[in-house]
């Protein structure tokens, strides 16, 4: 016996290979399909629309498959009503909870469509009611924050997602359409990132940076400081390493002893490193170290003096850590989430761990660029279903230098 | 004006390039030196001994340089007495604290040499007295665990470190000395790792594994289960990912959808992943899931049923996490440290983050092998001054398969 | 003004993303399109068929675009007749020559469809007539072998290509469909390669190996020798390095001094290397060295004693080279081409240069697997439009060891 | 029984780890040693000197070991007289031929010390006499160019090599000594390369570039053209690919369709590529294409119009190739060798194959910098005993852009 459901998807289905992926998903989940109707966009700019009957062995399999397909923007033709179940335990979702995407999502509860305010992947959807018991709000919540008694959306019914339409500027990142053939690709890339940041600022949005210690090792700290001062760094997500290396460099004025030829910095066993940590711990916080005149330069100093925000989240390999570092990673994720509203552009530089962590919680609607000299880091991000992610494999030091030249009029003039 | 101190180092100074590194360190710390005496080992097996006068601009610089040189096994000719200062704040070491190495260390306090029981890099040395006020014990402590009032060793005086002598079996990892030319290098490597594990077990020591999700992705879980059952995995350090992928694979019996061609697994956006986490969270722990018959196979199941130990420490990119995961990384480090006594061999497989974390806290006396398909991970470990670290760049799946064939007589016979 | 042509394509257009690539190509060539009709396969196994009008600015642009689209299996609805022009210069094709794909190709000349016997990418198509002047044969020819007076097919008319249908065994390489979830992915891969070779042999076809010096460095020479003896290596394409390292290892019985930890062998500056070359040069050929009892073991020895074929083609970084090496690369390509008839399976191991060279001349109908520890090599092959290429990122030494265990019953029993 | 020889080496033996490597070599060649005397440089700048007795099983082993040690700059205390044997076959050296290093070398024949004019690795040394039969000249010759009747130096006697003293500017490439801590490492590197080129030009020497197609793919062609025009490119060594991509880009004005995100260009199956080759082949040469107005821009155009030299050497994966390409690799090596006199600086960019080929034939006295985004390429070069090689792992496009800004006053002003 088998169960079936009609689903639909529209957009530039063939241009971007979306339909291929949808059909692959169905097979991967051991399902089957019939394409009932396919209205193909005749001309280049016309959208296509497909109606597909999805078939699975039983209802649980079908529900899972439908949830999976929603990550591609596939919705049920007749969405029906969302089902709701009550969480019985803190930190645990009901068995058939709807697992979220990072796409714009609406949920129909008791006849009303509610917009999910904070799309985030791999969360549960929590229903909140007003005093009269009327459904008032649906929001994403990671399973660790679920509390017994909360109402949770279950199954795939009553839910619609919307895949963001790639706009002109996003298209530009495709690099194939570039009309000016004599242009230098690398210069084009730098300019596109600069344009993305400027546009976000013009719309009153924040620019989020996610950085690893490579920013300091490649000598890009002065470039980043210039961009902080010029207003292009509103929030920084990082770990203990970026901040410590930056502070160590400021406190001890040392050449960091980087072996550039092999692309690796001397992270450990470096006595300055551990002494820098102790110095800031003594002050109580990075801000205190700045205000007490102990820390007088570098990236962290400029973030403090220009009142930018930063969230440092620790990892198991940390020394110290700095007093500002969240040692509880779940607390750290919460602190990062709290900074996401109003972010309009995100640049990830030289860090796999914090880039993936940020990609996990960022809505698909935020333009996202990942820069690293290691192709694996760039690929990893792009793999994660963040359709908005663009990767640039290049030297972080030279890239940030060029970006500062592009964004900060006086950079390197003095 | 300048200050100076006589130091000495002995061993196979030239064979292993140690002296080059010592002199490089001196220059890097802006110091100078005179080689006062150099007794060279005439024949291949004779040790050499060097007496060097180290010169620095001022005493703080000299003390730092001396501490740095101790990481290479260089001691003061006249070690003198250790200085002691009292910690004034929780989590902060006194200004001139001695920053530790992972080498065997002795400290002379008030005329008595005390052995440091738990060598670990980048810690402070805490002095404990007995009831009569006599120095009784010196131990390493990470700065975050320091409490006000503790007595802390400062400066470089009164301290001697000993570099482990590479024994025959360690030499074998050099691969150059292999006498049987027709041997297959890869087979030799597998056998050497197997020998290292067997030797540790014969000495009544524990074998520590540090693993990443690649163990599951490359299909090596059955091989690892066989080695757990055969008694070659006493402790596992890992993150949320290895355990979750392993459990997901057992619960859902799914092909994991690995794109082996490009060496990457589908970590995220995979609905099974998040559902596996929720299932175990509902049970309360991995052990409970095993005991309740929910989890019936895989690596974590075999660790539980064979009463092996594991420490899972989280990271900022985790979903869930599993209820057994330490979400506070400092707590996680403490939990890892607690398992180190009696470890006699350490194998690190397919994880950069947890391998570096383990390398940070492991004494230099424990043989250590790091296996990864990514040369950068292997290099990173070897860089960290763990003179005992050996790296093997190979396919994790095939390597563990071969290791199981070597260690477990019946493996692949059934 | 613009020109247009009706084209068609059929197959599993959406499953494999082919249509996306076709439309991308059109845009990349500054063309436009209208999808006139799209008959979608309703059920999973039904093929789809698309009729597309392709639009370009002028006829030369259109012809180029049509040739480009043929690399995807797109043919003109009304193919018409092939145009023919005469080459005016040795080594130069007429201006609008048809640039070939590696797909099965038929050409209609003067009313007759002729099958191209030896499909190869990026060649010209030469028309041969019988004594009566009737078109008798069309074959691919690289531009360097063109002679003045030859008749060459021009433009995109009169040509049909056929994309190979991925059969079940090829599908298996997709790795996603594997039904046996408890299987070890790496073991599955080894078995699939073994199956591919066995199938080729059963069909009376030859197995072609393309190898780099890593085969010797990783200790896989004994495994390869066993497979030569067992009949699974009919032809070897390689460079000077594989053969020289293999011979050096046999002549001098030396440990090769491989630094396995960092995955690199000592290629140069190694006095044995240059002396091995001189020894074989003195003999006049590898075969002579074998027959004179100078060379008594290794891969090259087993190829000679078992009468297998090999083609060694040199490169600019070669020492020596061995007397059997083609120092002229165009001659080398010709020698390689001469061995292609009847090849039914191709395994490429540990070489970028010779793998790409072989991929250039191999018909798309030959199953092709590329094994390397470096993902870049594997990706490069897969990029080159060889739709039949499968890549495996793994350790070459362990992989060949496992392959020998799979293919050779007595291997490792002795 | 065993044989022994006294050897000596002097210099900064410990600082640079040379002595470690010498002793490793002795063990690797199954020899033994006694250090008879070791005069250690007391202060930082003093050289050290070691007298070592080297022991081997028999004379051939000893001779080989002594030749090996000469690659490290180790000479016999009593060099004695060189032995000479006559080559009996074309292309074959006598059995105990001396295998050369790329170091400055002198040979004592019949009482006279002769300087080797063209040091090159892995060659034979040929003795030339004047009309009176007096030894007049000793020069390196690759074994393929040896002719029967030539007199060849054999064994290790009568030969002295000199390791170049790293001068201040070379030291600077060490990157550790940099005094200005706030400097950006990447900017420092660019400036050092620029300084090396300027210095070579001031000394009337030539600057040699070795380049791969990545120069074009990363958009660095305009930067390189500017440096050609400014006189900083005297000779270019490359393959068919760099020249063809550059020409294709000029002829067709196309965006090259580079997938920068993944760092790979579309090399093949690209119809423009094969058509560009045909166009130049029709002209007969790149120069003819420039003179006939067919080729009007790009790197190759600027080399021709500014009368710079280039040597293109083919490989087995080439299409076409361009008419200027040496298809015989041994001929190609000869053509490259002919351009080496007066080269005073060498920059290798984005090519493994041609970089290794150039490293093989370049004297150790020529400063050499290798730039690539792939650490493996950089490491490979540095491994090959070219003590003068410096590697920079960075983005080729941004690096050349910055180098042009540094070297060409008006670059990017227009």
TrEMBL record, chains A, B, C, D:
Residues 5-102 form the LOR/SDH bifunctional enzyme conserved domain. Pfam families: ArgZ-like_C_1st (PF21571), ArgZ-like_C_2nd (PF21570), Saccharop_dh_N (PF04455). Its cofactor is NAD(+). Residues 192-403 form the Arginine dihydrolase ArgZ/ArgE-like C-terminal second subdomain domain. It comes from the Bacteria. Its EC number is 4.3.1.12. Residues 104-190 form the Arginine dihydrolase ArgZ/ArgE-like C-terminal first subdomain domain. Gene3D superfamilies: conserved putative lor/sdh protein from methanococcus maripaludis s2 domain (2.40.420.10), putative lor/sdh protein like domains (3.40.50.10690). It is an enzyme of class 4 (lyase). Transmembrane segments: none annotated. GO terms for molecular function: nucleotide binding; ornithine cyclodeaminase activity. CDD domains: SDH_N_domain (cd12144). InterPro entries: ArgZ/ArgE-like, ArgZ/ArgE-like_C_1st, ArgZ/ArgE-like_C_2nd, LOR/SDH_bifunc_enz_cons_dom. Keywords: Lyase, NAD, Nucleotide-binding. This is ornithine cyclodeaminase. It comes from Nocardioides donggukensis.
